Amino acid sequence: MKSRANISKIDRCNGLSQKAFYNKYVKTSLPVVITDKAEWTSSEKFTIDYLKSNYNHLSKTIDGKTYSLSEIIDLCQTSTPENKAPYPNTYDALRDFPENFGDLPEILYGKSNRLNSRLLSNFFAKHTNQHELFFGGYGCSFPTVHFDWLGVHSQITQIIGKKDVILYSPDQTPYFYPDKRHHHHSPVNILNPDYDKFPLFKNAKAVKTTLNPGETLFIPAGWWHTTYMHDFNLTVAISHVNSYNWNFFMDELYLNTKIHYPKLAWMVKIYKVVVGKIFNVKEALVN
Ligand SMILES: [Fe+2]
């Protein structure tokens, strides 16, 4: 793959066709912000009052204390860099908010998500957390820079608030000192890096973008990233696997299965080849 270490900005596109999206960004592993196609985010269903009155039965336990959704929202609304709300606060968008996300269109990909196919055994795909809703507040940031687990692509759609996303291309992985067991997380604190401990991080080149409500960021598989919030934030993230990250996804799945179910890991290798070919044929017939 061509080196992406020197891209200095992320394209922002309006009116991008699905074909152009695949050709310009998915195939070449380049992030992009889509500024249209998520008009549903302006629905009155995504106001703080609506969420508090309709979903207060949802609860979250953080450090042994259980909070209702209203309490989580209050914490996020009063968050400051000095006194941050706990983050990430995530909910399963499909299970917990089915009225709003049940028919959420995968605005970038159409029907190409292999995670939704019956061909991909639930045993393998069940931990990929396909639709995650994040609540956050001013000063909140993802605790570590990481690439998304199992090598999925992500689409992040901003519903409320502004979110900075800081990204690094996959060819910069050596600068992040990933540990062997959790190799999608980096121990480097990118906001205050310890160059004595992680000297190679000096070479890392970030590319930053800010997401506004109604905008969607495509993060290709393997891109390191973290986020920072300026105000109350509501974001939905969707994981995606298609022909371009299939091998990466299955290789990551193999490593994970080898740790947790060593006797079954060989099945993943067979799955990668056999089911990968079936998907390719099926998708070629549709397109
Ligand atoms: Fe992520």
From TrEMBL:
Coiled coil: none annotated. It comes from the Bacteria. SUPFAM superfamilies: Clavaminate synthase-like. Its cofactor is Fe(2+). Residues 86-257 form the JmjC domain. SMART domains: JmjC. The keyword Lipoprotein does not apply. InterPro entries: Cupin_8 (IPR041667), JmjC_dom (IPR003347). Keywords: Iron, Metal-binding, Oxidoreductase. It holds the Pfam family Cupin_8. This is Cupin-like domain-containing protein.
